Amino acid sequence: MSVDDRRRKAERIRRLLDTEGDSVHENTRVFNEGRYESTAALEDYEELKDEARAIKEDAIERLPELLDRVTEAVEADGGSVYLADDADDANRYIEEVVDGRSVVKSKSMTSEEIEVNDALEAGGADVWETDLAEFVLQVADEAPSHIVAPAIHKSREEIADLFNEVFEPDEPLETAEELTRFAREYLGERILDAEVGMTGANFVTADTGTLALVTSEGNARKCVQATDTHVAVAGVEKVIPNVEDLRPFVELIGRSGTGQDLTSYLSLFTPPGDSPTFGDGAGAGSDDERPLESGDDREFHLVLIDNGRMAMREDDDLRETLYCIRCSACANSCANFQHVGGHAFGGETYSGGIATGWEAGVHGEESAAEFNDLCTGCSRCVNQCPVKIDIPWINTVVRDRINRGAEGDFDFLVEGLTPDAEPGGLDPQKRLFGNFDTLARLGSTFAPLSNWVARTDPARSLMERTLGVDARRELPAFERESLVEWFEDRGARVAPDEARRTAALYPDAYTNYVRTERGKAAVRVLEALDVRVEVPAAGESGRAPLSQGMVATARSNAEAVYEALSPVVAAGHDVVVIEPSDLAMFRREYDRLLPEDEHAALREDSYEVMEYVHGLLANGADADALAAGDGERIAYHSHCQQRTLGLEPHTVSVLEERGFDVATSDVECCGMAGSFGYKSEYYDLSVDVGESLVDQFTTDDTADRAVVASGTSCLEQLDALLSRRPAHPVRLLDAR
């Protein structure tokens, strides 16, 4: 990426932070809190997700068969089914059906994808969006910024100004009630005059051809029942086997997207439908009412669109994208999306975490490239997805393909900071951060000189111009003696025959070369609990290159780490990890990078350090061997992946047991996300996300508390944004 490209992206993000950020943040926060509350009330939440996942897996596996079945079902009832190859093919068919007549539409992301409105209007048809948010965007001539709430970036005041300017009502519109009433009346007239109703479909059942639409306004029903021609547009992935299969999705989609136990309207249409359509009169009871037309006279057209989906089905890494039910949970739970919205974190059609898969599949990798790096791989979306899609992996794979596409050769071997199988055209910024272990090793070897040079103005300016490392971000200071070297000189202090357990403390690159004090504290804490500790030279876990989309390098790192730790695992000893993102590698991402047996062995025997301490204390270790808090007040922030793995409670429990008064943050992300916060194009967004955490740690209750955080990124961000230097929780337990 050139300097100009970085500046352009940074300026665009700053503009969106200023103009749309507040509205997006407030609305996604409401959705997020609603989802937590609503899903917590489901006793079988995880079972429902498993069931939904299984149905989608089966449906995509049998998709050609299901397309034949749904075609037979719809045509048997007198409807028509058209399988469109791409957007142009779909629009040609729909234009022929519409034939210049007036159209009213309910919300449909698939119709946005194929840009059917433009195609129909070019053919002379009047087209009206009847979903309130889509209507707002149609009037404003803007693209959606969210999959479920397309106008989430607009405030009530902005919508009022827009309507007053465009429609010039007799009395200015101000309140939400006034705006809604105006839109309802305005669109009601268009619906009564329309000849064609167009909808999407959340699901299409192959056995009966039933369409399931989940809406909050009921406008889809009006679009269907007020017209005598119904055109439904859906991607082929929306087809599921049977009507009975709708059950888990009905339970999950509203809760996952907007935090509603059930959306206002769940509509099931089995076309052509036996409901009569409204006539040309003003409605029931009017003097000019004419008899309602018979449902037998209605036309129904189901347009099922491929547009890259069948190719995605054959792609082992993009295939999961087709399981998506478009609920937007990934967007709502993403800290970057919460602050900047879908006009930055989105492509031609789709937004949020899953957008990378959709954009790469239906529009091409170039569309995904514009926003793909906004996914930091924090994994917050993983537990929120109702069909358990590994969204971070899809983002990583597409990032890897974009990297390689820059070179045009998927197998081009180069020499970078370390030999790897990455493309020669890889952005130097990504190569730098992806090889952090090598950089840290060199920095440590030449410390303190390397630290001094890196802090000089000429060096900072050069790094910003050539590598995009923002000069406003303080760089880490490397220690002259690494943790591994310190331990080699010091040696183990617990004899094998006196040990309760034996554990290898994994020396992640940051602990090994930068924050060695937390590694030393971890060694002393474990030894105080009668654990014999080893600190093997295991190398970088692969997290750094994986975050840059350097999958080949990450796999090479994973293989080296397993080789270094395999003797420990084979001996039945434990692996203790300080950095939560590295533990997430061992437990999750290594499933993609290592053979199954190697991943399973490392996953089962690896623990986060505070999780491990909690387990030791629960099994009889002497808690008094650890430092006592004596009521010390601390403010604790847990790491994203630590929360995803369900490990935050262990840290809180241990600290409270040792007498610390713990206040925990409910801000879910610090905004730093490893290298993300160092990049000049994303620095402002990183700080904007971090300010939410600062606000929480500067209240009357937290302003005087010592700040504690588990993750490296969290510690770096808090150190930069607060006047209090934060510490890792294991240091509080160190009697030294």
From TrEMBL:
Residues 367-394 form the 4Fe-4S ferredoxin-type domain. It comes from the Archaea. The keyword Repeat applies. Keywords: 4Fe-4S, Electron transport, Iron, Iron-sulfur, Metal-binding, Repeat, Transport. This is (4Fe-4S)-binding protein. The keyword Endoplasmic reticulum does not apply. GO terms for molecular function: 4 iron, 4 sulfur cluster binding; oxidoreductase activity. The lineage of its organism: Archaea, Methanobacteriati, Methanobacteriota, Stenosarchaea group, Halobacteria. Pfam families: Fer4_8, LUD_dom. One of its GO terms (biological process) is lactate metabolic process.
